[in-house]
Amino acid sequence: MTLYAAYGSNLDPRQMLLRAPHSPHRGTGWLRGWRLTFGGEEIGWEGAVATLAEDPSDSVFVSIYDLTTADENSLDEWEGVTTDLYRKIRVRVETLDGSSLCYVYVLNSFEGGVPSKRYLEIMMAAAREAGAPEDYLLELLKRAAQ
User: Residue 18 has what pLDDT?
Assistant: First the structure.
């Protein structure tokens, strides 16, 4: 099995149950040295979509899943790895039990652009469902939306 660190709308446990039904949730953690950002506004989804960018002064709240091979392949397709929309990279995620090597999806497009209000609301609800701390939720609320 492969560890996957979900962020953005994939923080929603119900969404992940649909996308990776055979893969157990292993907890939450922080991706240190990265920040949540947006890009690919030209792609669609009513605006820019979530991605990650390296930033030594920031952190991203994530949920960790232990993916089966079949669920990993399905999620790769859902996230657009097969169409080169996103790529997978390995990162270290800090948890209360130490650190784990996980993979995340990173957009293959330039950073920039503004997400839709609807997309930010989905991301906010997902973060809340995953148990993100209040200060993380407040930072999401401050984001500009179209």
Answer: 95
Backbone angles phi, psi at 137, to 5 degrees: -65, -40
Q: Span 87-110, mean pLDDT?
A: 96
Provide the b/e sequence for 122-139 (b: ≥16 CB within 10 Å).
bbbebbeebebeeebeeb
Split into its structural domains, the chain has a count of: 1
- By the 8 A CB rule, do 36 and 50 touch? yes
3-state secondary structure of 137: helix
**Helical residues (DSSP H) of 1-146, grouped into ranges:** 13-19, 69-79, 117-130, 134-141
What CATH number is attached to the domain comprising 26?
3.10.490.10
Q: Give yes or no for residue 71 having a pLDDT over 90.
A: yes
How many angstroms from the chain centroid is the CA of residue 21?
17
The answer to whether residues 13 and 63 touch, using CB atoms and an 8 Å cutoff, is yes
Residue 97 belongs to what domain range?
2-135
Tokens of 138: 């407040």
42 has a pLDDT exceeding 90: no
